[in-house]
What we know:
Layout lengths: L6 H7 L10 H15 L6 H8 L3 H5 L5 H26 L5 H18 L1 H9 L5 H26 L9 H13 L13 H16 L2
Helix pairs in contact: 2-7, 5-6, 5-7, 5-8, 6-7, 6-8, 6-9, 6-10, 8-9
GO molecular function: DNA-binding transcription factor activity; transcription cis-regulatory region binding
Protein name: TetR/AcrR family transcriptional regulator
InterPro entries: Homeodomain-like_sf, HTH-type_TetR-like_transc_reg, HTH_TetR, KstR2_TetR_C, Tet_transcr_reg_TetR-rel_C_sf
Amino acid sequence: MPDVDAAPAVTATRRPRGRPGYDQDTVLRRAIDLFNRQGYDATSINDLAVDLGVTKSAIYHHFDSKEAILAAALDEALDGLDAAVAAAADATRDERAYDRLRATVEGAVHILVAHLPAVTLLLRVRGNSPLEQSALERRRRIDEQLATVVKQAVDEGDLRGDIDPEVISRLVFGMVNSLVDWYHPDGSIPPEALAAGVAGVLFQGLHR
């Protein structure tokens, strides 16, 4: 006669085939971290499975391929930057381009802090695949939007006119992007202070 008391215990410990002990977001976080440490091209799905302590099929339960993971990471960074630009434009709709630019810089710093690993990965993309080229094109469009705001602020007389607007744009957002090289969200500088500090240094040197 079957042991009816033992059957429920077996059922309780059984896990669906291919389902990892991690949700999709956790898999993505760990993958981004591994891509940043080892390089995307040098990292395989097997490397990620070993890092997570799961099978490769467990990874494929959440993502179809390594490229799908990269796409999700790059979309996270780019969607955040797009949102920062849009929010700054909306918040300063009736103000001068200078105010919009400053709000955009502060918003970009907050996005960088909130999505630091994904933005770090985005800044390391070199266009080695159609996916990476598409991400770079999106990033270029964001840069062009910001360069337009810089030019408007120069034309309105709020930024120095003796420096080419494109140079100003590159200097401003080069400084923001450099934060990925040294800023740690768990350090002593809170995001609000960081955003204010970056904007203060930049615009006290540019404001006429």
